[in-house]
Amino acid sequence: MPGSDQTLHQTARSSTPRIAITTGEPSGIGPDLVLSLTRLDWPVQIVAIGDSAMLGERAAALDIAVSIDAYSATQAPAASKPGSLTVEEIPLDSECIPGVLNAGNARYVIRMLERACQGCIDGEFDAMLTAPVHKGIINDAGIPFSGHTEFLAEMTGSALPVMMLVTDSLRVALLTTHLPLLAGPGKVTVNRIESTVRILHDGLARLFGIPDPSIAVLGLNPHAGESGHLGTEEIEIIAPALDRLRSDGIRLTGPLPADTAFTGHTDGRYDAYLAMYHDQGLPVLKTEGFGSAVNITLGLPIIRTSVDHGTALDLAATGTADPGSMVAALLLAARLAGQP
Q: What is the structure's pLDDT at 280?
């Protein structure tokens, strides 16, 4: 695929990039995945953010021999080596039992995200990687939270974050993200499409080194509206927005019927797809690359990557969680931070 993650644009750096990794929902597999990284050499400094005692207990449960060292922002970053983990201490608020959600730790999860994001804003960290959180338990604790994407956008003052998932052969960005299905069509507007496409176009060019990206845009309705017989959003909203963008030289195809748009994606015709809503585009991508795909947020002033899956409570502390997506997300964060 043209411009795959093997050809990411790289920027020369004078020091080792420092990447913050939030350890996610403590009763899920986030801590397990972060600890699994200590089995490998890395060309970046990993700074895990979370409760060091919990991480030590989880390491013992997983039979992972690891030295946990306290993080110091004043020390020059050094590449992470096997058998050690540098931790920025954020203490748990309540007991953590693997596999058992506890709303008492919801604020702990938010504090981790705040610490990592602020560190990126301040230039202390070169990128952040987020392990999965459980949105439901955070909301149960009375904290409004619709997802990492929206939270980081608010914290960085970004008007429109764009969620994109990436595999070796497919990139899918979303016009709308974590919304109820019935709320999505109201967000499909000319202005939102124009802004999202521009952010996607810029991200493909600036971060992935694709100078003139080709983007396929899906329709909202079945068969892209069937010439207005199955809905008029394509005629009244999506097509006019794409025409305005094409007048600025952006290469776009669409609106395309979503049920056939992905059938030829391996031929390199498109550098990315833009889906109108979450479950229109992501089932295709996750069917192809689940467990190795990476979530990246475009439109932020910081670099943020994440895994492509959830907390998998039933796998926590069992040693059976697949770290593939975590490894891929760290590799992508390292490349975007300028590390070959």
A: 95
Q: Do 188 and 265 fall within a single domain?
A: yes
pLDDT bracket for residue 124 (50, 70, 90): very high
Q: Indicate if 94 and 2 belong to the same structural domain.
A: yes
Residue 300 and residue 152 in contact, taking contact as beta carbons nearer than 8 Å: yes
End-to-end CA distance of the chain: 20
What tens digit of pLDDT does each residue of 162-196 get?
999 999 889 999 999 888 999 989 999 999 999 99
Crossing angle between the packed helical segments 148-156 and 106-121, to the nearest 10 degrees: 50
Whichever domain contains 170, its CATH number is 3.40.718.10
Q: In 10 A of CB 196, how many CB atoms?
A: 23
Q: Give yes or no for a contact between 8 and 209, defined as CB atoms under 8 angstroms apart.
A: yes
The range of the structural domain enclosing residue 200 comes to: 159-299
Answer yes or no: do 164 and 254 share one domain: yes
Residue 117, both tokens: 């994001």
Pairing relationship of beta strands 162-166 and 171-174 according to DSSP bridges: antiparallel
Alpha-carbon distance of 192 to 174, in angstroms, equals: 11
**Number of folded domains that form the chain:** 2
Q: How far is CA 169 from CA 55, 57, 87, 200, 213, in A?
A: 34, 38, 34, 17, 15
In this structure, are 33 and 145 located in the same domain?
yes
pTM: 0.90
Same-domain status, 134 and 11? yes
Q: According to DSSP H, which parts of 258-323 are helical?
A: 258-261, 278-289
Q: Are residues 116 and 252 in the same domain?
A: no
Q: What is the spatial distance between Cα 179 and Cα 162, in angstroms, rounded to a whole number? A: 14
In terms of domains, do 178 and 281 share one?
A: yes
Are 33 and 95 in the same domain?
Answer: yes
Question: Which amino acid is present at 124?
Answer: E
